Amino acid sequence: MEHMIPKIKLNNGVEIPQLGFGTFKIEDGKPVIDAVTTALETGYRHIDTAAVYKNEDGVGTALHESGIRRDELFVTTKLWNRDQGYDSALRAFDESMKKLKLDFVDLYLIHWPTDMELISESWRALERLYKDGVVRAIGVSNFKEHHLKPILENCEVRPAANQVEFHLTLQQDQLLQYCNQQDIAIEAWSPLMQGTFGDIELVNQLADKYGKTPAQIILRWDIQKQVITIPKSVTPSRIKENFDIFDFVLSNEDMALLGQLNTETRIGPDPDDYKKK
């Protein structure tokens, strides 16, 4: 079923499945192994984790035990804040690789913009990993335009992706436009607003119109916005529901109506205010 998932070509030619499976706040061990296994059996081939999620080991186990060829999988993990810096970033990457039981990852991201001097050193480390061939693409997460500019002005390898909070009430039009101009793919974390979309009447109306669930309407909107989206669930029925979004298309009129729901309201922290942890 993975052939159903459209792919986006990153700025270095690497293709990333536009729908992925997120693992934020899924407990390591059996919970994350079961969730990732269900996702892979459903047809997902893009799995997103991070060092700070503390579940890379379980994710790696599920990937290893799936029997799916490595070249059919797309795996993302992220460098945590306390590991920022050149040498510490390289050590952190090695630790992630051991836990994931992989020889390479497809996408490695700097998780948050903290101290920009350290970010510069971290980016040099990511460039080295990229040149060494243990990472297929490198990027950032939660970076605003003013965080991206210093990297773009000094890098040897341009960021391929920027994973940010993106959903109906935080559409980040300016950042999306900037990243499109810079050929940086946008990935959406928390696309389903941590389940708080249930009271949005338009979404419920469109769900009735298309014979889909509200969650499927929102994820389809992401896909048609050319945004990479990584919904998360531990419930098998919802994991499968979130995958079932490729048999319908939202009209231009309905896409525009959904676009009017933007209020620039965050669920997670503002990257400018995020404290180093």
UniProtKB/TrEMBL annotation:
Catalytic residues in the record: Y53 (proton donor)
Keywords from the named record: NADP, Oxidoreductase
Site positions for Lowers pKa of active site Tyr: K78
Keyword Secreted attached: no
Record-listed substrate binding positions: H111
Molecular function per GO: oxidoreductase activity, acting on the CH-OH group of donors, NAD or NADP as acceptor
Database matches in Pfam families: Aldo_ket_red
Residue ranges annotated for the NADP-dependent oxidoreductase domain, each copy included: 19-261
UniProt-listed SUPFAM superfamilies: NAD(P)-linked oxidoreductase
Organism domain of life: Bacteria
Similarity comment text for this entry: Belongs to the aldo/keto reductase family.
Protein name per Swiss-Prot or TrEMBL: Aldo/keto reductase
Native organism: Culicoidibacter larvae
Source lineage: Bacteria, Bacillati, Bacillota, Culicoidibacteria, Culicoidibacterales
